[in-house]
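Supplementary Methods S3. Input chains for the assembly prediction are listed below.
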Amino acid sequence: MIKHLLSAGDLDRTDAIRILDTAEELLGVASRPIKKLPTLRGRTVVNLFFEDSTRTRISFEAAAKRLSADVINFSAKGSSVSKGESLKDTALTLQAMGADAVIVRHQHSGAPHRLAHAKWTKGAVINAGDGTHEHPTQALLDAFTMRRHLGDLEGKNITIVGDVLHSRVARSNVLLLDTLGANVTIVAPPTLLPVGVEKWPVETSYDLDTSLEKADAVMMLRVQQERMKASFFPSAREYSRRYGLDTARVNRLPDHAIVMHPGPMNRGMEITADVADHVRSVIVEQVTNGVAVRMAVLYLLLGGAADDTSFDPIESTEEGTE
Amino acid sequence: MVASDDASRADATHPQDPGHPARTVLDDQDISRALTRITHEILERNRDSSGIVLLGIPTRGVHLARRIAKRMSEVEGREITAGALDITMFRDDLRLKPARALEHTEIPDDIDDKVVVLVDDVLFSGRTIRAALDALNEIGRPRAVQLAVLIDRGHRELPIRADFVGKNLPTSLSESVKVALVETDDHDAVAIQGGVA
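Predicted C-alpha cells for the full assembly:
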C-alpha cells in the first residue's frame, strides 16, 4: 500500500479495489448502535484546511473519530496563516505536536505533494483537494457509489459534465475510473476543457444530449465561479440550457443510470432542483459513502505498522530550505 | 517479495521435507465426528437452539460455524444460519504489521440477550478471542458468550478457555498447527508441523 494519498493516479487497480472493498465492510459500522472502532486509538489526525469546505472536512472528521483517532481541526481563517505563516512552518508546528496523518486542502495545486515530499511532516499526507489539481478521496467515494449501483465498473460508461477546467474532482475521477476500466466521456463547453485533454484517457464532447442514452452514470460538476477569472460562457441561462441536467434529460437516461454531483450544488445552474431530488439522484448517498471510504483510507494508511525510517529531522530541515 | 515467495514455497514443500515432517493428527472423519459432538454439546448445554447465535471468526472459523449450523439444523429440524465476525480492527498486534484487508462481518440475528457461540479453528494465545469479545461488545449485549474450537493447542497468554473443544492437542511453541478445510484448501485435515520430530 502507498504511504500517502496525493493523487488518484498513484493507486493501481489492486490498491483501489482494496480501498473500495474495505469501505464496503466499514459501511456496516454506520448502521450499528455503536459507530466506533478502536483501531486508531491514540493516533492524531490533523485536518489542515486552507480552503473552505463543509462536507470533506466533516466527512474526514467523522471518519477519523469513528476509528477512535484524535482529530485536530485547523482552518486557515483565524490561524497564524492570516499573519503570513508559511505552509512549511505550519507543517513543522503540526509535526512538533505529533500528527500521524495530515489531511490537507489547499488553494494551490501541488501543496499536498510538497508537504509529503519535503518531509516537513512524518505522518501520512492525504490530499483533500488541491487547487484545480486533484481530490482523490472524492473519486474513491464516487467510484464506490457507482460500484454499489452498477456493479463492477469495467466497461461501464460514465459521463462527466461541466466545468472540467477547474475541477479537481473530474481529474481524480478520470484517473481512477480509467484504472478501474470504465469508459469516461467528458462533456463541456470548449472554453471549460483543460489544455491537453486530448491526452487524457477519455472521449470528449461539446454536446450533452448525444452521450445520455448510453450513460450508466452522469456526474455533474459544479460551475466554479470563484475560480473563474474570465467569461467562459455567455450567460448562466445559456450554460444551464446546453449543459444543465433537467428532468427531460434525466428521462432519456437508461433506467438503471444514476445521477451524481460532488457538491456543493448550484441548483438551477448545472442541475435543476427537480433532478437533484430525483429518485435517480444518489447525491446524498455519496456523502454517506464518503465517510466509509475515508475510514478505509485512514485505516489502510495508518492502521498498520508505522514506518519511521522515512523521517529524519536533520535531513528534512536541509531539504526544506532548498 | 522474495522472502514471501520463499515462505510460500517452503510451506508447499514441507510435507515432503524429511527434516520437518507434518504429522496428520485429525483426518476428515475425525473432524466430522468432532463437529457433530460439539453440535450436540452446544445444544445440550443451552437446552435448545432458539437463543443461540453461531458466529465464526474468519476465515476457517466461519466454515466451521457453517458446518455446525448445518448439523444443528438437521438435529433441530429448522434452518439455523451461522454468521461471521471480523476481528481485524480489534487486534492488539495491528501496529506490528502493515494494515491488512478486512474480512466480511455478517450478523444473522440481533445478538442482544442471546447466547453467542464463537467458533474458531485453533485456540492458541487467546488474543483472537479477546479481540472477538471486544468486537461483540460493539454489536450488542449477549446474555452469554461461549467458545467452540476445533483444536486447543495450549500456550494461553490470556485468561480465556474454550467451552467446546474438538481435540486438545499438546504442542510445543516451535510447532505449528495447520488446519485444512475443503472450503479453502482441497481437503479436511489437521496437521502438526515443525518442532523436534
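Chain A touches chain B at residues 1, 18, 21-22, 25-26, 28, 32-34, 36-39, 299-306 (CB under 8 Å). Residues 136-283 of chain A form a domain with the Rossmann fold fold (CATH 3.40.50.1370).
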